[in-house]
Amino acid sequence: MGTSTAIGRVNQTRRDLLKSAVALSATTLLSRPALAQAWSPSRNIRVVVPFPAGATTDMLARLFAQRMTETLGQTVLVENVGGAGGALGADQVAKAPPDGHTLLFHNITFTTTTTTLQLAGRARHDIEQDFEPISVGAYVPFWFLTPPSVPANDLKEFVAYAKSAKDLNFGSTGPGSIMNLMGEVLKRDAGIQMVHVPFRGAAPLVTEMLAGRIQFGGDQLSSSLQHVRSGALKAMAVATASNAMPNVPTARQLGFPNMELQGWNGFLAPKGTPAPAITRLQQEISTASKHPDVQKRMTEVGAEPSGSTSAEMRDMLHDQIAKVRPMVADLKLTIE
Predict the structure, then answer these.
(1) Closest CA to 212 of 144, 145, 143, 146
(2) So what's the pLDDT on residue 24?
(3) Is 60 helix (H, G, I), strand (E, B) or coil?
(4) Which of 118, 242, 256, 269 is the most exposed place for a label (fewest CB within 10 A)?
(5) Going edge to edge, which strands form the sheet with 131-139?
(6) 181 and 109 Cβ atoms separated by less than 8 Å
(7) Which residues pair with 142 in a beta bridge?
(8) 35-49, 101-115, 303-317, 318-332: segment of lowest average pLDDT
């Protein structure tokens, strides 16, 4: 009887230990996402958009800020800090305290302007060394446009026309911008002549194209989608395939592979921002990108929701910089 009781106690102890081990294992597994969520903002979050209010990047930043305010428990404020092709606003973020409360929302032009300034020895920051990628909020295809007065229906036809035309102007959203680079790439690769006319943002560029004073230009699809759909402007090509305009050929399909660059709008933080903050912010951006209202608005303007991981954004930026840098060097782009 005594022996039987002792054996029973041993078995009970074993069962208790097993239950404890299972409980501990479950707690550990459950705590992993909890640890990723451990960081929470202690005050308002400032999102710097390095362009004027009202443009595509500004609109997308505010779309995300609204949703993130609802889920983070702190107000997410968008501040427009324009100048130097976006370099001024980016530099403010690069030098901000790396605590998750100051973010940059930039686009594809970040790679061209920064590279241009670096090659000129005037850059105050480096994308890969001074920033932590958080997430691509949306991919927004870049495209090339003409007014209806230009007798061409695609990029190949435009090049044929440009070979004999005189006094052609191509417009961009500013020196060192993606359209500045793409215009110069087209001149080089196609052997045509155009004069670069930089503007302060997409709005004045589109206005001058609508008036017919700029014969070739381009920007993110969202800034001019309505004008192409109405026939007020013509799409010559998209840099990468667009779900919003599937019938517009890509530059590569028309024989201009060097003009293939993925348009993006995404969040970055100062280098050294704690990993838990990056993780939490990425999760909130991803959640916002899946919200029905956000997806509906993006579809309306030709943007494609993303919410990518930090690693995916880092790889994308690395590859894009590697492609842009030799082109900027060869073409000797400058920012005054």
Answers:
(1) 146
(2) 42
(3) helix
(4) 118
(5) 76-80, 45-49, 102-107, 264-270, 131-139, 304-305
(6) no
(7) 220
(8) 35-49
Q: Tokens 């028309």 — which residue?
A: 254
Quick check: helix, strand or coil at residue 307? coil
Look up residue 43 and give its two tokens. Answer: 């005050």
Confidence class of residue 36 from pLDDT cuts 50, 70 and 90? very low
Tell me, what's the pLDDT at 202? Answer: 87
Portion of the chain with pLDDT greater than 70, in percent: 89
Tens-digit pLDDT profile for residues 67-87: 999 999 999 999 999 887 788
Which domains, ranges and CATH numbers included, belong to the chain? Answer: 45-139+273-331 (3.40.190.150), 142-259 (3.40.190.10)
Neighbours of 124 (CB within 10 A): 15
Give the residue carrying structure tokens 């800034």.
Answer: 223
Query: How many CA atoms lie within 13 Å of 63's alpha carbon, on the beta-carbon side?
Result: 29
Q: Which two tokens stand for residue 9?
A: 């106690």
> First-to-last CA distance in the chain?
96
Residue that is written with structure tokens 């592979």 in the block = 257
Q: Cα separations (Å) of 138 from 73, 177, 222?
A: 23, 19, 11
